[in-house]
Amino acid sequence: MASPRELTQNPLKKIWMPYSNGRPAQHACPRGVCVTNCPTLIVMVGLPARGKTYISKKLTRYLNWIGVPTREFNVGQYRRDLVKTYRSFEFFLPDNEEGLKIRKQCAEAALRDVRRFLSEEGGHVAVFDATNTTRERRETIFKFGEENGYKTFFVESVCVDPDVIAANIVQVKLGSPDYIDCGNDEATEDFMNRIECYKNSYETLDENLDKDLSYIKIMDVGRSYLVNRVMDHIQSRIVYYLMNIHVTPRSIYLCRHGESELNLKGRIGGDTGLSPRGKEFAKSLAQFINDQNIKDLKVWTSQMKRTIQTAEALGVPYEQWKVLNEIDAGVCEEMTYEEIQEHHPLEFALRDQDKYRYRYPKGESYEDLVQRLEPVIMELERQENVLVICHQAVMRCLLAYFLDKTAEQLPYLKCPLHTVLKLTPVAYGCKLESIFLNVEAVNTHRDRPENVDISRPPEEALVTVPAHQ
Amino acid sequence: MPMELTQSRMQKIWIPIDHRPSLPRRRYRACGPQLTNSPTVIVMVGLPARGKTYMSKKLTRYLNWIGVPTKVFNVGEYRREVVKEFSSYSFFHPDNEEAMKVRKQCALAALRDVQLYLKEEGGQIAVFDATNTTKERRDMVLDFAKENDFKVFFIESVCDDPSVVASNIMEVKLSSPDYRDCSSAEAMEDFMKRIDCYQVNYQPLDPDNHDRDLSLIKVLDVGRRFLVNRVQDYIQSRIVYYLMNIHVQPRTIYLCRHGESEYNVLGRIGGDSGLSIRGKKFSVALCKFLEEQNLKDLKIWTSQLKRTIQTAEALKLPYEQWKALNEIDAGVCEEMTYEEIKETYPEEYALRDQDKYYYRYPTGESYQDLVQRLEPVIMELERQENVLVICHQAVMRCLLAYFLDKSADEMPYLKCPLHTVLKLTPVAYGCRVESIYLNVEAVNTHRERSEEAKKGPNPLMRRNSVTPLASPEPTKKPRINSFEEHTASTSTSLPSCLPRENLNLNNSQNQF
Question: A322 in contact with B at a CB cutoff of 8 Å?
Fold first, then answer.
């Protein structure tokens, strides 16, 4: 029997892989999320103003954040690119042959791009965002999926509450490019007529006729759900996510602990307490929270002393989450960047080369952090007003989720000490307010230096290190 | 200065040095968000042989493992206590007034015990396992819950596939105490008539109209389809997710550790060393073992530590690496021998022996932390079919505790020797375990509970409410153990004269 292949540890991610003839043999895949061999095509279904695009964008953002390459394809956008000026709802009348032709073309163009994304560009999930309200249209798409080896999963949003629909129209339709030259009343009236155009031919996903399809039907903005034939891990995660999100207005506050003793010394990691200025910040934070007058605020911290000390100053109950602990710097814990450069110059350079995937020896990477934080994100989705007191790398990960930042951008997001970020969902995204609480602190943000070569001289490695004691 | 903190010695949790004892209680969760303050009653709904008890027990096992004190109250067992001899299906006939009275009393007795459990015994979730097929009965339970300030979550199982029903009857009903004096054919016939008795008055949950304000999940056709209405909170959301991921396909889960490692031989814990010669021999033996098992579509999972990967490499099959399967992080004690730990950190050494489940290594992890880390592994194991998990001692203990319904107290002392494969097969309401030693010698890495620890935990020890409890024995025990020898659902670790609840060393407390 041939002896087992030797293992080598990939220097960036610290993953053990077999190698032969001195080269790594691509074999086992480290599990981040399930890597299904079949790409997945998510098909949105529903009348206009039912939240399809809201769900598409949010789901896409979530999947990308957990590491599943996902893209949405909004057929309305294709239509806007093709038909330069929108005139009126009449374009959508079921007997408007010209309109129908164009709309079919747009759907086909979008599907072509879906195919390119899933079959050629390494995409895992494509979200096909259109009304897809007839069984015929859905069968066409399903066949397209089958032909290309994709699994198809339908997401239908059903809502008859006129208040919800009116609110949706106000939130996202009035500001649409379609209505750029209209007054609000005009736009609303036109849009309501547009919805009527679809109603007659709307065939909702049916318990019997569609019993072999995989789908989730979301009713009344999440009051109830019907889930049929979930096929695999990714569909199960999608269902779980959709069942946890809500649209109740609320705010999420993110901040770091107050300045710590190790921060002052320019050391990373560890578990020290607050510096005097850090304690000042904690008191300012208490004042700030008070002034914000937030209803039922939940406060979360990590299990590290510095975040808990900060929370203590608020005088309100808080919960400690171990998963909110700062990134584990392994052998580099409590070192300064200068010491890391001196003792582990190779590691220091590798980190600059790919800060997202780089794993500290015996420590973690940003990629690991994201996986660790996923339950926090899920619970944040469930909650309403929350203040999360955490750490620099952790805060970057959470922020990247809310602001839809890429893996490349994530590790360089600016999360300075003593600054609260207030996130408020609005339309399809998140409004961000940055509030500096007026207590000085060291800067702990290290930009990527120009020279990331492993042979670089120390000065060039350390050129972006912020000042410290 | 209100920000002075001290770190608890056992769990390494930072807590304020409390000068003002009147402050609101603080809650420390290693594992995620705060549980709802209101306890929850889960109400099962469905005709007989629809999997209600199966789901009740499985869900309870899962919830206890993730640290939510949960218990099943099976009304059928209350009935068996009261009605000593089961005669026939006619007991369940809707016209049998005498029997209807008895059955109602049993339901009420069970609810009284639910109340006791949730209000006085530290329970968080009670699973009320009965048919609950009429609106009237469900209204009674809703009223009961309202009086007591409990949340209610309904789980209905609907299945009209006759082959599924027949198969359920064979799996769990024929061996029921009710039918111990019957032949299989007689039992089957009687049970089918029993189901008919309920069918007549069955009013399924109606979330579109009558039940639109209830929180519920309807499980249709053994999980093909689900209807979910008004999930109120985190725990209901987890329950829904869990129910949507479990399945009943026959399959086997294999758990084993990596082959013996260099560090094992040296008596060092943790680290990331490679296999010893004997460890490599084991991998080869494992490869042969798997071939003989002749499995369809086996998935293989390893950790990201070298020794498990080396072991998997010998199998010459694709495998997936999970960081979540890495061995418990011993923090400052990584790569030490137990002697070195005792010498360098005598206090830590002693603390660990006192309470091995909650004990967290300085800058490292505890078994409690491990459970949280491993929860996604368990969820994915539930989704999968045949899987081999090549992991580590502490990790394997946690996973095993889930499958065999072991408590937090037992978990850190479960025997998971090197070079031994544990083969787990779901059967009836539990899990059959076969232990297969692959005949390659290895060091023993198991440390028994110390004498110190046997005295019981320090009563002043602070508790976090995340504590796997073994699912408590049902209050009215079945009088005959009808399960197979190896079925792990009968716990043998405590003498039968001591009801589990009274010996609950790990009673969860939300305060310290």
Answer: yes
Per the domain annotation, does B450 fall within a domain? no
DSSP sequence for B79-90: HHHHSSS---GG
Distance from CA of A261 to the nearest CA of B (A): 14
Which of these, B196, B179, B197, B177, lies nearest to B188 by C-alpha position? B179
Q: Residue A236 is nearest to which of B207, B244, B320, comparing CB atoms?
A: B244
> Alpha-carbon distance B343 to B363, whole Å?
18
Q: What is the ipTM score, two decimals?
A: 0.94
**Domain holding B210: CATH number?**
3.40.50.300
Residues B284 and B395 in one domain: yes
The pLDDT profile of chain A, 469 residues, written as one tens digit per residue, is 456 678 999 999 999 998 866 666 654 445 544 455 799 999 999 999 999 999 999 999 999 999 999 999 999 999 999 998 888 999 999 999 999 999 999 999 999 999 999 999 999 999 999 999 999 999 999 999 999 999 999 999 999 999 999 999 998 899 899 998 889 999 999 999 999 999 999 999 999 999 999 999 999 999 999 999 999 999 999 999 999 999 999 999 999 999 999 999 999 999 999 999 999 999 999 999 999 999 999 999 999 999 999 999 999 999 999 999 999 999 999 999 999 999 999 999 999 999 999 999 999 999 999 999 999 999 999 999 999 999 999 999 999 999 999 999 999 999 999 999 999 999 899 999 999 999 999 999 999 999 999 999 999 999 999 999 9
A237 is in an annotated binding site: no
Q: Using a CB–CB cutoff of 8 Å, tell me whether B309 touches chain A.
A: yes
* Of the residues A210, A244, A278, the one at which a domain ends: A244
The burial class, CB within 10 Å (0-12 / 13-18 / 19+), for B193 is middle
A274 vs B contacts (CB less than 8 Å): 3
Residues A414, A442 share a domain: yes
Contact A172, A427 (CB under 8 A): yes
pTM, two decimals, is 0.91
In a domain, B70, yes or no: yes
Q: Quick check: is A2 in a domain? A: no
- Contacts of residue B48, defined as CB under 8 A and 6 or more positions apart, other chains included, come to B131, B173, B191, B194, B195, B198
One domain for residues A138 and A193 = yes
A227/B244 Cβ within 8 A: yes
CA distance A464 to chain B (A): 29
Same structural domain, A288 and A240: no
Specify whether A101 is located in the same domain as A179. Answer: yes
- Asked if residue B108 and residue B189 are part of one domain, the reply reads yes
**Taking the CB of residue A204, how many other CB atoms lie within 10 A of it?**
15
If asked whether residues B236 and B265 sit together in one domain, one would say no
- Tell me whether residue A5 is in a domain: no
| Residue B498 belongs to a domain | no
